[in-house]
Amino acid sequence: MIKYVFWNNKGGTGKTSLIFQTICSYANKHKDKKILAIDLCPQANLSDLFLGGLINEGAKKLEHLHSLDPRKSVAGYFQDRIASPFSYAKIETSKYICNPSEYNNSIPSNIDLLAGDHMVEIQSNAIATLSNTNLPGVNAWVSVTIYMQHEELTSQSSCTP
Question: Backbone dihedral region of 52: left (phi > 0), alpha (psi from -120 to 50 degrees) or beta?
Fold first, then answer.
């Protein structure tokens, strides 16, 4: 899997706009590729844009994804991973991923979205603690940091400042 991560330790620098344009441009140029956008920012502005933005009620659509059981977001995925953090049990990731073109017809259909969620802010403390746990025979750091791997996708992530 090819991965692109956009990160800056400051808000308001244009990360969300840049990654949104990058993902859509890449998707339009590579229609044969499946792209997974992962919004790791608790503000979920990237998800809001993909789902319709201000004019087309992207925030309302995002709230709907958060209301589902399980949450159709990165927090829903982390919630299941945190329950058994060191097992390599296969988790069906498709139940957390949406296709934003179903909500916003301006988005290329080869983009999937693991939507952002404010719950990630709380979960990040648990994940950090788990990754630094000392257990005999378990490399906790590796076990926790491979949560977001998938071989057949181009992954582009937006991270919190």
Answer: left
Handedness of CA 99, 116, 120, 26 (dihedral sign): positive
pLDDT at 16 over 80: yes
pLDDT at 153: 40
**Secondary-structure percent of the chain, ordered helix, strand, coil, rounded to 5:** 40, 15, 45
Do the domain assignments include residue 99?
A: no
Inside any domain, residue 100: no
Domains in the chain: how many in total?
1
Tokens of 123: 């979960």
What CATH code is carried by the domain that includes residue 149? 3.40.50.300
Predicted confidence (pLDDT) per residue in 95-131, tens digit? 999 999 999 999 999 999 999 999 988 877 776 666 6
Model pLDDT for residues 47-80, shown as the tens digit of each residue: 999 999 999 999 999 999 999 999 999 999 888 8
**Residue 43, domain extent:** 2-92+105-158
E strands within the chain? 2-6, 35-39, 111-114, 154-158
Evaluate whether residue 63 is within a structural domain.
yes
- Reading across the β-sheet that carries 111-114, which strands appear in turn? 2-6, 154-158, 35-39, 111-114
